[in-house]
Amino acid sequence: MKLLNFSIIRLSIALIAGIILSKYLHLTILQACCLFLLSFALLTVTYFTFKTKFRNTFWFDFATYLTTICLGIFTFTAQNNSLKSSDFSKKLRPNASNTVTFKINTYLKPNAFNERYYVDILSIDNNSTTGKALLNIKLDSVLNPFSIDHIYLTKTNLEEIKAPLNPDQFSYKDYLKNQNVHYQFYVSKSHIIQLETKTYTLKGIAFNFRHLINRKLKEYNFSKDELSIINALLLGQRQYITKDVYDNYTNAGAIHILAVSGLHVGIILLILNLLLKPLERFKHGLYLKTALIFILLWLYALIAGGSASIIRATTMFSIVAIGLNLKRSTNIYNTLGISIFILLLFKPNFLFDVGFQLSYAAVFSIVSIQPLIEPLLSFKYKLLDILWKTLTVTVSAQFGIIPISLYYFHQFPSLFWLSNLVVIPLLGIILGLGILIIFLALINILPHFLAEIYGSIIHLMNLFFKWISSQEQFLFQDISFNSFQVLLSYILLFFCYKLITTKQLVWVIGIGLICIGFQMNYIIDYRVKQDDKFYVFHKNKFTLIGEINGGDLSVYSNLKDAKTNIIIRSYSVKNNVSIKASYPLQSVYSIKDQTLLLIDSLGVYNVKELKPDIVLLTQSPKVNLKRLIDSIKPKLIIADGSNYKSYLKRWETTCEIKKIPFYRTDKMGAYLFN
């Protein structure tokens, strides 16, 4: 009995279960280590106890999966920087500026206000530390991006990443937590001092090489959008793409083309396999060819930025390349399982990366479903056959990614098949020509006419996806889809696959039970929606109120586009409630047995025969709060994001003196009246 006899897929599932469990157990590194060692000891005992009893392997199976689960818990916990004694958060002086030495780790896409980087914190006040943080530098038209591996010094206040202030908004805090980033700081370039950089990492060398490629390409007449697509397609750098172009690819269902993943790495493997085929003529040439392909694939992964999707694809195709060239038969499911296990063992945070999830869901779906669809039609003409195979691959991939895509993005581009049918057959040519363009540009022999042809191809591709994106009637948006529905969808997909391949009645029963599960989810969701709620949302400079009644959301605001505001849209989609209408703000609201009085910039609150329980202060009213409290005696005072900070501080002090609860949405988030 050998451990390798276990299905690598099952071991990968056990590892995934351990990683997920570790997010909820909150163990220390020592506790996680002890748990793993105990489970490993149990595995050792069961191995020697049952190794001769081939018919009774239950306890060995149990111990193996338990050990793998504990391994997942340990690997995830061990990579949590905040738990380490050397983490910089342990050295911070609260509410004070610290002298920070940091090294640039990753260049991120800028937002509307700041250049952004992940940085490694090397020291705090001359105390050596470890850990990552988010650096924000005010945008400057003359500011060149900092280079990876460069070391800088500044004096700043590091602050924890804040959670969203409104319900069901995208949580940047949770996203950064999955990147092992818990703190951020803001500085201007003038307050940063560059220090001597003595060592360079492979990531820094790759960054400099990409910078060299871009400098060479800028000598030709590529437009900004063309150059950004070249960076995404070939170098794995999407941070230069404008929002409009990115949205066009997303709405056309072709965003995966811009993420270097299995499709790109697979094409590059085919190109390398063809170019290096002459080596097979030499003695041991096959081994040399395999080694070169392996090295070049990982060199490309490094140059392309080493994202989760790139590492996943390179790991998988490295295994495929070894099996292909050394004439070793490989099972695609085992190849996928091995790549998942290896990646999550060293990078457990990859599990929570959306690209990683979509990538594996697509590949598993393609290798399972495409062989079932392709035989349905056959064509004599090769072109039609290629188009049919492309369509079956595209449709198969969509079966796998739709549940995850609906959960995260809440939209479905129904013209995805047209986008992929046109572009995917040409993608090999686009990538191959792009690699040639970069190579010729680097050695300064790129003909201008060839650069113009390639730029025109990219331009036409952008125009095509812009046209697809403009067909808004085929883009279904704001689709509510929860995590339970994602789980049910994949179980349903599996049951349907088993029914088609085995034609057994048990899978029909299973499909029926899943359909009942969807109905139960709908009933529970419907009942939850019937609960009446009243929100005072947080919105800078504006007042935004939401009232849910019978599953309908009424919006009260001084915003012109309140119904389409991202806060309202996010809430309505996540909670599956419909937006009824948008109304101007009212002075008085009745919330069950409570009365809310809204006091705006006019400062009017002397309403006869009205004794409000709650007061909402908006638009910085010039009122004497002590007199207001003495006059109407409210039980609670709320101040939203439309008020001046100086007013909020003064009101907070007054409420403390008068012993009246004071709620600030800018600190405590949206206020909910149940």
Provide structural commentary.
52% of the residues lie in helices and 15% in strands. With 674 residues, it is of the alpha+beta class. Strands 1, 2, 3, 4, 5, 6, 7 and 8 form an eight-stranded mixed beta sheet that branches. Helix 19 (625-632) links the parallel strand 17 and strand 18 (636-639). It is globular. It starts with 7 loop residues before the first helix and ends with a strand. The relative contact order is 0.06.
Draw up the topology in text.
Layout lengths: L7 H18 L3 H22 L7 H21 L19 E11 L5 E11 L2 E2 L3 E7 L12 E6 L2 E2 L11 H6 L3 E7 L4 E3 L7 H16 L6 H12 L7 H9 L10 H14 L9 H19 L4 H18 L6 H15 L7 H20 L8 H28 L2 E2 L2 H27 L5 H23 L4 E2 L6 H20 L2 H25 L3 E5 L6 E6 L2 E6 L8 H9 L3 E6 L4 E4 L2 E6 L14 E4 L7 H8 L3 E4 L5 H14 L3 E3 H4 L2 E3 L1
Parallel strand pairs: 4-7, 13-14, 16-17, 17-18, 18-19
Antiparallel strand pairs: 1-2, 1-5, 2-3, 2-4, 5-8, 6-7, 9-10, 11-12, 11-20, 12-13, 15-16
Helix pairs in contact: 1-3, 1-11, 2-3, 6-15, 7-15, 8-9, 8-10, 8-14, 9-10, 10-11, 10-12, 12-13, 13-14, 13-16, 14-15, 16-17
